[in-house]
Amino acid sequence: MDSPPIHMDVDRSFLPLPSAVKASIFESFARQNMAEHETDVRSGIQKLLMNSYGISIDNSSELILGNSSQALFIKLLLCCIQESGTFLFPSGTNGYYLSAAKFLKANLLIIPTQLETGFKLDPTALESFLSAVSNPWVYISGPTIMPTGLLYRNTEINEILSVCARFGTRVVIDTSFSGLEFITEDWDGWNLQTCLSKLPASSSFSLSLLGGLSFEMLTGGLEFGFLILNDPHLIETVYSFPSLNKPHSTVRYAIKRLLGLKEQKAQQLMDTIAEHKQILRSRSHLLAEMLSKCGWDVISSRGGVSMVAKPSAYLGKTVKISGFESKLDGSNIREAVLRTTGLCINSSSWTGIPDYCRFSFGLEATEFERSLECISHFANLVLQI
């Protein structure tokens, strides 16, 4: 391969940074001797969560900041381990989170999900698992699900939380990959506060919100994550671990500025967010079209920067190309595609969905065009189409 590899195996967007983001970052470095209130992001995050997910975060809740949502998730894994809990993940979860849980030797269970429901977490299946474990924790990516790009409806998350409350579950909702929903015509958004107010009282049930702003605020590679906790014991446990690397004051200043612009609905920022959503909607369509044409069964994305597809036309075919020789399956097709085209995708080993691979399409424009060519080239080599 003469060209560098194309990475469709990443979680972030590489679309151009909005001018408002660039200006906020530049100003944060130009400023000196910033007062504490100029870097305090709590109020902005509270308003963002209310506007985006309909949840009220009062001053009794703890806001913990980190350089990334992944780093904060590690703290939650450690809490689960310390409580001798079991972390439950739906099949079709971000592979990096599962890898972290396995690395830390956390007790974990995978709840099977089904194609018919878009590989979403099913309340009935969840209930059967929760009834069989003690000290359960449940991870949910939403409203936008990573890696499928599908969306949980408000009624769906309500049903899931109701089941979790009955079993006194610690629930972690990861909003890190939400904020760029681009097909929302029949989606009603979330109103978590109404749902929580109707749940039965439980001493052990808790809801933790994990998030970042790279999708919501189009901050690109600016490292920032937050964790909202409302359980005193959990708060105490998190702080008992070695301290986190917190975002630098310059990052907090820039984030505070951007949160203010979002709250004010600054026209330039809102226009850019709308433009990004339109680009992602168009790319999602183009990618799904190309994959379908080339023998993949696609689950069309509705938000975020990725989708999953099954290489149906390739499964079981014996391939001998570019030093690769094997019968293709959902796992080794990643290596076959990489060796022959230079395109990096996530295999089914990463997605956790049998035979389904992940494709991220939030690439630079030229890289996205090259990725489509790679998919077509691989089809020509293997299927002669």
Automatic annotation (TrEMBL):
GO annotation terms (biological process): methylation
Aminotransferase class I/classII large domain: residues covered: 18-372
Lineage top rank: taxon: Eukaryota
Record carries keyword DNA-binding: no
UniProt keyword list: Methyltransferase, Transferase
EC number: 2.1.1.12
Keyword Methyltransferase: yes
A GO MF term: pyridoxal phosphate binding
InterPro entries xrefs: Aminotransferase_I/II_large, PyrdxlP-dep_Trfase, PyrdxlP-dep_Trfase_major, PyrdxlP-dep_Trfase_small
Signal peptide bounds: none
SUPFAM superfamilies: PLP-dependent transferases (SSF53383)
Protein name: Methionine S-methyltransferase
Native source organism of the sequence: Apostasia shenzhenica
Gene that produces this protein: MMT1
